[in-house]
């Protein structure tokens, strides 16, 4: 029960309270670039959610078994090589390079899989897939997971289930933000926006107002935690 | 370099205004919004981005003849990731407090579109000197944009600039400017302002005798 309620808390606080776009500012490039039409925004959001979950699972496994200080697999290999050494192997300097490689590989895999086996889905969001490699949401989620897996002090430890919940709801929060924005921008086409503000500028201003609205969720996690405890 | 690509000087000046990464190309918005609630954080970010941008432009330019087209983005990203790791460790070693403050936004330089775009547009096609000039120009443009946003946000939000008080002590700090909404609003309004000035300049250049001048 404790575990389930902590999952619910992670989900709510990731998707709503600390929304990727409105609180952490990550994923702004597609948020501005691909939010002209609701269906396109939905496709982008779905693609990001899918890839971020896959990349999060891969990076959790890599961090836990290979990269974190004192990770089991690396240490086992190290002690096979030099049995009398007592050093703890720490490969966390390679974190960023490994993550970016994993993300690129995950995107490539998803693209090839979809093209071969689900062509209809590939047509729907195939064009967004290459863009996702450089989407900050994915790297940001990997970095958060790294913090919770390898940080001995500070953040609490996340197992694979919590990491996956975090990743999936980060993607859903991103999808929520980009779909809301696309809905507003579709209506904005009928409005008389001052000429210098057209395009990205008015989008940023609307995002500011939406961020104000999302700030209303602040503190919800505390109440929810109290409710779940009862 | 007689293949129609911009010259070294042009590459440098382009980055400052005509192709300003933040206001004109709308790239690298994520760090622009995230670290601009104080000037010192913004300037640290600019230095980190400058280091990574210049180093990765040099490396990309040196290996540009070896690149395979379908693997080039991966090579760019891995190069950038290596330099970002160096920058991140340096920041953590020498300015630990600032490195804590910038948090995940230093590693996020890896996926900063400015750097990948410059590798793709300039460094993978031109010689080292032009690439360095291009990196410097983009850095200056990025720095100016961040300085503008951070000045507005810090002065209105804290009443300080680089931590020094500039507003009268009765100034009610606009907390909203420090929080995320302030970042979006400031960037949107400044972008609108930049567009407005750009249009005014172009109109003046087009009309031989502007009305009222």
* Portion in strands of chain A: under 5%
**Please, what is the average pLDDT of chain A?**
86
Number of strands of chain A: 0
**Whole-angstrom Rg of chain B:** 19 Å
A few lines on this structure:
Chain A is an all-alpha fold.
Output the keywords.
heterodimer; A: 230 residues; mainly alpha; 11 helices; globular; B: 213 residues; two-stranded antiparallel sheet
Describe this structure in words.
- The complex is a heterodimer of chains A (230) and B (213).
- Chain A contains 11 helices and no strands.
- Chain A is mostly helical and 230 residues long.
- Chain A is globular and about 75 Å long.
- Chain B has a domain of 140 residues.
- Chain B has 9 helices and 2 strands, in the order H-H-H-H-H-H-H-E-E-H-H.
- A two-stranded antiparallel sheet of chain B has the order 1-2.
- The radius of gyration of chain B is 19 Å and the shape is globular.
- At the A-B interface, helix 2, helix 5, helix 8 and helix 10 of A face helix 2, helix 4 and helix 9 of B.
List the helices and strands and how they pair.
The complex is a heterodimer of chains A (230) and B (213).
Chain A (H helix, E strand, L loop, with lengths): L1 H16 L10 H6 L4 H30 L4 H10 L13 H23 L1 H7 L3 H4 L3 H15 L9 H29 L11 H16 L4 H10 L1
Chain B lengths: L7 H9 L12 H6 L4 H24 L9 H23 L1 H7 L10 H11 L4 H31 L1 E2 L2 E2 L9 H4 L1 H27 L7
